[in-house]
Structures are given as C-alpha cells and as structure tokens.
Design goal:
By secondary structure, the chain is mainly α. It is built from six helices and no strands.
Amino acid sequence: MTNETSGDTSSSRPSASWIAVFGTECIVILTINVFTIIVFASGHHLRKRTTYLIISLTVADLPMGTVTGPMEIFYHPESNPRTGFSWKDFSLLTIYNIFPVFSLANVSLIALERLHATLYPFRHCLIDKWTYYIIILCCWLVALLLAIVMAVLYHYVKVAHRYF
C-alpha cells in the first residue's frame, strides 16, 4: 500500500483550496485599502501630519494585495527553482519583496512616531509635514534596497535569503 501524502511537496504548486484562500485574502486586502484611500481622499480633515504614515501604509498595502498576493499564488520563488541569474527573475523577486518589506518598515515607523508623540508631545507638535515626506521617501528607498539585497541573496546564497 502506498502513501500518497508522503513525498516532497515543497516545490509543488498550491492546491485549489489554497488558491481560493489567497484569492479571497487578496480581494479583502484590495477592498479594505481602496475604502481607506477613499475615506482619506474625501475627508480633508483626516489629512493631518500624524496620518501621513497611515496613508502611506494604505498605499503600500494596496499593491501588497494586488501584486504580491497573486505572485504568491503564481510565482512563488521556492516553487520555481532556477539556476543562474536572469534579470526577469531578479526584477520579479524585487517586486515580490518590496511591498511586504515596506509594510513592515512603515508599521515600525508608525509605532515610533506614536512613541515620540507620547513621550515628547510638545516637540512632536513642531514637526513639519516635510519631515514626514522625507521619512516616507527614505522608508521606500530602504525597502527597495532590502528587496534588492533579498533578490541577490536568493540568486547567490539561498540559505542566507531565508534568514534575511
């Protein structure tokens, strides 16, 4: 009697039930973030310096659900073992990694900004809106740099890619 469940399934495609779960998750992420963007776009009283990071997180989570989610289904790096370097794979891996990295970095920035507002409320009121713009831009640049490093590590040192 053979056991059909034994064997290496790490390189297999996701099953139809997992595709349905990922698809539903992508639709929910898309819906919630589009709704949040509409609320912030229509409500001028909501656009304050302290909500710039939340708006930035919403804008970053939108492609997370529309780009990274479907790539998780159709182009998962571990399920597509390739040998050698190609610019197509490098670009796809960079896109695959940039939105989750930016989301995590932006959530950390929101926590730090709230901590600063709690510990130093009077200094926090004096922060200019251009400071927030620069912080968001630097966060995007750091996320891009980390996504590129992750793509390079995936191509050359796969073990380090997992830990990075």
